[in-house]
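Please fill in the sequence for the structure shown.

STRUCTURE ENCODING:
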């Protein structure tokens, strides 16, 4: 009888091992299929007949991407727009700390910062992080882009290349388990999650630096870590994009934010800057009030002027036949009672779907430019 129980125990263990291996094989097969489909979609933007040189790209982007509610809102909005034949694909620059619970924060230690510091907090419990991973996977399946917003939201404008690369190491480790034994508590947590992304690190090409803090050392690190574009500089409207300028030794594309004029005042096309411009960083505007509507309309008109300045660019000018992108950077924050999210939606409804307009991603724009030899 004891021999029977002993053998039975070993059979159960063997079955579990085979089941885990089979599940891993299935997961890897699914990942390869999803990545292949996504890359095939990106390559379509090299079709010159469908996307001529004067195609206007609009890059609608979000930094951080913590809120589960905003994940749902943005994905639902994009789905509704697609149903109206006005396709919208967002770029989400992910913060690595949102995929790690606070109880594991002490594994994060950058030179010059106290152990476990993050200026934007951490992920919550297991269920919160599982849901966030699921929503990120949904975004990727639907053609949206995932980029990096680093981790603890620090200003890297004075960092060394080593500091940048350490930050990218942490980002990779927080999102993509390696189970290398370097961080046993993280290994245990990621195994217990029993879920992971349906894409690998190669899917992440774009970088938005926290606080837009960048320097020459960043470009060297970006190249070493597989990034192909960044979006941290601020240009005047109409100025062309650049690749590998004198301060960019990594040959990285720069898809800048641009300045906008809002009711006679200048700022950049980012909701946080608008929030400070209009209400000094305090959520005092309430939806439905005359003040909220005026602030909304001021931003919308500023965004539309920005769009038409680029959209109406003559293709025979110094840009060599390419129109500068319309890049707009927002956050998953509903400042001023959702004012800036409302503006982004109204802006997209107005311009997405117009002739020769693509409301798409940085990776799509990069393929488009390089297909023309830009």
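FILLED IN BY: designer on duty
SEQUENCE:
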């Amino acid at each position: 009888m004891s021999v029977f129980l002993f053998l039975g125990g070993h059979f159960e263990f063997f079955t579990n091992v085979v089941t885990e291996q089979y599940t891993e094989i299935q997961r890897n097969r699914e990942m390869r299929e999803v990545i292949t489909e996504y890359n095939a979609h990106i390559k379509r933007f090299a079709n010159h007949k469908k996307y001529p040189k004067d195609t206007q790209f609009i890059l609608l982007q979000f930094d951080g991407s913590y809120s589960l509610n905003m994940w749902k809102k943005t994905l639902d909005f994009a789905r509704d727009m697609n149903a109206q034949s006005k396709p919208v694909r967002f770029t989400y620059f992910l913060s690595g700390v949102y995929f790690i619970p606070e109880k594991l924060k002490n594994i994060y230690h950058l030179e010059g910062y106290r152990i476990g510091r993050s200026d934007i907090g951490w992920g919550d419990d297991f269920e919160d992080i599982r849901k966030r991973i699921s929503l990120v996977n949904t975004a990727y399946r639907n053609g949206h882009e995932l980029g990096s917003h680093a981790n603890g939201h620090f200003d890297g404008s004075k960092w060394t290349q080593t500091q940048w690369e350490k930050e990218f190491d942490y980002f990779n480790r927080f999102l993509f388990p390696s189970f290398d034994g370097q961080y046993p508590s993280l290994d245990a947590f990621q195994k217990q999650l029993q879920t992971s992304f349906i894409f690998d690190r190669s899917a992440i090409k774009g970088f938005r630096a926290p606080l837009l803090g960048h320097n020459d050392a960043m470009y060297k690190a970006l190249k070493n870590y597989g990034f192909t574009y960044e979006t941290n500089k601020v240009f005047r409207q109409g100025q062309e994009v650049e690749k590998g300028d004198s301060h960019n030794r990594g040959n990285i594309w720069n898809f800048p934010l641009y300045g906008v004029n809002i009711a006679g005042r200048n700022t950049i096309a980012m909701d946080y800057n608008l929030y400070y411009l209009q209400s000094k960083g305090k959520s005092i505007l309430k939806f439905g009030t005359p003040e909220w509507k005026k602030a909304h309309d001021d931003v919308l008109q500023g965004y539309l002027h920005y769009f038409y300045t680029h959209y109406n660019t003559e293709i025979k000018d110094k840009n060599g036949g390419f129109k500068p992108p319309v890049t707009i950077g927002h956050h998953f924050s509903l400042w001023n009672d959702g004012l800036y999210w409302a503006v982004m939606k109204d802006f997209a409804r107005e311009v997405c779907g117009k002739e020769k307009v693509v409301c798409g991603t940085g990776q799509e724009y990069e393929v488009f430019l390089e297909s023309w030899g830009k």
